[in-house]
Amino acid sequence: MSELMNNRRNLRRQLLATASVLALAGFVVTTPGARASGDDADRPTIWIDLGGQLERIDRGGDLPDVPFDSSVQAPLRSPNAIDRAPPFSYGGEAGISFQPQNSDWIFSASVRYGRSSGKKHGHDQTAQVLHKYVSPVVHYTHYTPQGVKVIDTNAVHHESHSIIDFQAGKDLGLGLFGGQSSSVLAVGLRIAQFASGASTVINAKPDLEFYNYFPPSLPASRFYIPIAHYHAFGFAAQTRDQFRGIGPSISWNASPTLAGSKDSSEIALDWGLNAAVLFGHQKRSIHHDTKAGYVQDRYYPNKYKQLYQHSADHTRDRAVTVPNVGGFAGISFRYADAKISFGYRGDFFLGALDTGVDKAKRTTLGLFGPYASLSFGIGD
Fold first, then answer.
1. The pTM is what?
2. Which residues pair with 116 in a beta bridge?
3. pLDDT digits (tens, 9 = 90+) for 74-87
4. For 83-105, b where at least 16 C-beta lie within 10 A, e where not — what string?
């Protein structure tokens, strides 16, 4: 029954997305295009954009917390401090737009792709010191190496994301920001996909104590053996996360001229706002295993005593609706049929990711950072 209800909900979402596209197409076909000024006869009808970006990724934790983190004390570093995903991703973008002659309509398609990956190995240990023992019978002092406290962490993270937009817009900039400016209101379809994975392995010996052991066959006043006691912890976890969504979008992009003229070169202030509603699926799979034991040296009959071992697997797959909001601001330098742009932008996908361990926890995915692009026009 639940599967049938999910299928019905998915069908309704697909019908809504399809209806949005059909409405957009009908709006484009039935709305008469405004005639451009005579100066537009020389402008390119096709613009191609190529660029790149460095984006900070804000997505919350990928792995469960290390349960024995409180047992790790300075100078050893916390494993939670070592096991962190890379904060930045890098990638590229490409787009194409078409504006017919003597028309204010602009049709565009664009794709943005980014990825990040990281591999970290952290190995902390205390300096080796001497263990001191003063014989209770013969007054002299023995020294022996004590050993070290250790924590070793291996962590691997990877992430990728892609955003595809198809839009149809109308230039409403006639006189809003001056004769050389543009202001485009557009509607369309946005497709977004995010995927990430992480794995970590941690082994720790955060505490260490020594006791004096006197072999029964040897004089206690002259011979002793230091016996080590310590806790041994192990932790391993793997996660896989994914979101795919599609839905209607709307944007408003403006570019008022700051200096120069269209006939030679100009500097413009670029800014824009965008919003979308994405219907899709959110997936998460996670496995983690923790074990702890107490270790005594070889002279004791029980060298290793296991204290506990816990393991768990969780897999979730559910339909979600994700609102998306964003914007950008930058500056562009235009000359003839070419343009160079620099700026800063951000996109936020509300509740797109599941970052819970035992139960679902919806987390916003944020992508924000600087970008640069080169555009050139072709056709008359």
1. 0.77
2. 159
3. 777 777 666 677 78
4. bebbeebebebebebebeeebbb
